[in-house]
Design goal:
By secondary structure, this protein is α/β, with parallel strands linked by helices. Helix content is 41%, strand content 18%.
């Protein structure tokens, strides 16, 4: 949930099975003023929710053993404080089917990989009210 602009850094949970992508995206998010926690897969992400208390989740679609679609379904079904956290799906597949399937499961937005700093900043502004120069 977005916090007051003057309070603590916004917490982002970044979920991706690719270590290089996690490192690059973490650096980008930190440059935008975010506090970043990472998870290697869907199970890892679900177990970290309570500790991280994310304001935003960036979630890769293609992962094993629990893919992004199933992870998103679990997050949305939790009915707890994380059921309403904005979830941005990440994928190198920008086809209409993948985007539609993401929306059907309750994602808030969709970003294509590799991540583009301008698009990332727009998402941060939209969901976390983080004002960063584009």
């Amino acid at each position: 949930m977005p916090q007051d602009q003057n309070s603590t850094k916004r917490r982002v949970l970044l979920v991706d099975d690719d270590k290089i992508i996690r490192l690059k995206a973490t650096k980008m998010l930190e440059q935008c003023g975010c506090e970043v926690a990472t998870a290697e897969n869907g199970w890892d992400a679900v177990t970290k929710l309570e500790d991280v208390k994310p304001d935003l989740i960036l979630l890769d679609i293609t992962m094993e053993p629990l893919d992004g679609f199933k992870t998103l379904t679990l997050i949305r079904a939790s009915r707890g404080e994380y059921a309403e956290v904005p979830v941005v799906m990440l994928s190198s597949h920008d086809d209409v089917f993948t985007m539609g399937k993401s929306k059907d499961r309750g994602c808030s937005a969709y970003l294509e990989k590799p991540l583009d700093m301008t698009a990332l900043k727009q998402v941060l502004q939209e969901f976390l009210s983080i004002r960063v120069a584009v």
